[in-house]
Amino acid sequence: xxxxxxxxxxxxxxxxxxxTPLLRIxxxxxxxxxWWGATALHPGGLISSPQEVGTALWDLAFxxxxxxxxxxxxLPDLIASAGRVYGAFLLAAALALPLGMLIGRLRIVKxxxxxxxxxxxxxxxxxxxxxxxxxxxxxxxxxxxxxxxxSFYPILxxxxxxxxxxxxxxxxxxxxxxxxxxxxxxxxxxxxxxPGMFTGLRLGLGLAWVVIVVGEMTGxxxxxxxxxxxxxxxxxxxxxxxxxxxxGVAGYLSDYxxxxxxxxxxxxxxxxx
Amino acid sequence: xVEPILRAINTGKIYPGGIEALRNANLDIAPGEFVCLIGASxxxxxxxxxxxxxxxxxxxxxxxxxxxPVTGPGPDRGMVFQxxxxxxxxxxxxxxxxxxxARGKPKAEALATADRFVSMxxxxxxxxxxxxxLSGGMKQRVAIGRVLANDxxxxxxxxxFGALDAMTRERLxxxxxxxxxxxxxxxxxxxxxxxxxxYLADRVVVMSPGPGRIVAGERIMLDRPRxxxxxxxxxxxxxxxSLLHADHAREAA
Lengths: 273, 253
Ligand SMILES: Nc1ncnc2c1ncn2[C@@H]1O[C@H](COP(=O)(O)OP(=O)(O)O)[C@@H](O)[C@H]1O
Ligand SMILES: [Mg+2]
Fold this sequence. Notes:
CATH topology of the domain at 76-265 in chain A: MetI-like fold
Oligomer: heterodimer
CATH architecture of the domain at 1-76 and 156-162 and 186-253 in chain B: 3-Layer(aba) Sandwich
Number of helices of chain B: 7
CATH class of the domain at 1-76 and 156-162 and 186-253 in chain B: Alpha Beta
Order of helices and strands of chain B: EEEHEEEHHHEHEHEEH
Strand content of chain B: 15-25%
Distance between the termini of chain A: 35 Å
Bound molecules: adenosine-5'-diphosphate, magnesium ion
Shape of chain A: globular
Helix content of chain A: over 70%
Largest interface: A-B, 22 and 28 residues
């Protein structure tokens, strides 16, 4: 047994136990324990304990405990929010990708649009909330607009950067192999900037999950944001925290799926493959 | 005398900033000839090569390829870059098929052509790998293969082996000579290694800086394969080194 271990090259031999899972759970466990400790020391405080939140999560998912307005609402609210997140994200991508390519490669478009976009970009989504409710009314349209706005900029900025930073050498290589200048865009720019655009899409989708709660503060009836707002008004802190946890996990799973997709589609890229 | 496949006639280049990179260069390349350009850095070797390739405009004189003035890049003049310039999103096979496909060959035919050159360059094991998975020497084989697969008549090589280790460099020099003999390709090869130039070339063209000029052309009459340690090889090396240095001395004076 020992002989076998010694025969292995030094970088594969010593890791007899893989400690990666341990490394990954240390911080969550510490956080959970501190939370539990803090709430146990202040019984009756304003922040709910992990047990209360766990119970709330169960009731949100399956009902049968409180049987109130929140019971069994997890799935419908999650579906409503996810629909808005992905719908608004797709709309943002459909606008930001072509716009980013145009700004990145055509000087006229860049000069015309970039100053405006640079000024609009620092305005946070929350600041748009009142205007959005005036323009799109109280309800899902406003939420959709705000989420799309939030995910628009990272996609746009990354696309502009990606199409601008194509290695000049690749244009020369393509041209000496017979690609005409008109076809350089599809033969070189587009494929070369896919990894950068993908990074933008990934950040954009992540931001859509961040913005969804703000978006659903516009008076929509369904969705995780609406659930959190309602719970806040009823001082149901355990529901608020449960909603936060659900958004966190949903956003994480969504990002994980996108990352796996990128790894498949961009296997050629050292950063993604 | 055979009609040259490529001629630089009183060619000069002044870059937009005002730097005169090349003055009055005259160079004829015969079909199938292997010519090495050598000279100190900054003497306009890359500039001349890039003007032949059509990447840079000529500011005086002209460059003529098979009777026609060069106006831009074209597949008749294939370039091999020191930094490879492979398309990272394409497999090795598709990198080599890129040229034929770009020029409108049916895809199946282009891939069949690519497969022949994948084999010729000894890349069978890597046909479906991506460039980032290959060593420098392997990447440069792909870069040479894609120029050959695209029916180039002139190969322009700018210090193609400059970034490789000595062993790989020697193997690739050997392979390049074999391919060159088999294909009848004309080669313009830039190097700053005198030894590499004498080992490879039919003719070594010596350039000097400030502004870049062609100062001499020496035909290398040694039989191939050449022995870099032979007295004849050393005589030529000494002679060319004196040409290179004479020029430096003049500059210092
Ligand atoms: N794109 C460019 N713009 C301005 N000057 C350049 C450019 N490329 C090269 N030069 C200048 O032209 C001269 C010759 O350069 P180059 O042809 O690269 O020399 P070599 O390849 O022999 O080292 C140098 O002085 C260099 O700085
Ligand atoms: Mg150079």
